[in-house]
Design goal:
Length: 196
Amino acid sequence: MRLRLLAVLALFAVLLSGCGYNTFQTTDEQVKAAWSEVLNQYQRRADLVPNLVNTVKGYASHEKEVLTQVTEARARVGGIQATPELINNPQAFAQFQQAQAGLTSALSRLLVVAENYPNLKADAAFRDLQAQLEGTENRITVARNRYIKAVETYNVAVRTFPNNLTAMVFGYEVKPNFAVENEKAISTAPKVEFGK
């Protein structure tokens, strides 16, 4: 009888150690940490926007439409509640990603407009803000890459056997990841034409 009890306990211990529960805890925390860094870098960019807009406004006041677009894009980003739960909701995640893409696009237009103003490009405050923005964009890329890798590790754990059984029991689901907004457009090779 005692031998059977030990055998059952040993079997239970083996099954429990291979169920993946601890893997889910570890990888979920890694995803949350990586997501926090993504949010941190996006917040850094959003904090730079008002200073950048005000600096450009002083030189290019008649470019009101572009300045308004940047301000509105920043407001849309600020209007999204970026909570840890956002990474578990594919629709909210997509809205967040769309708002961030809108801000990126608006900032690009602002920097193109700035090219038309030599005095603005020479302004030390503008150059400093532009350098900070460029550095922040690089940090965003690194943070997003870390998040993508963390989600990949988590999603593989959720989807592989025998962990997927534990995932079903405890309700762990695949997390959304960053995607390219227009995948078809970037997969088309650009046409290069040289002057005749």
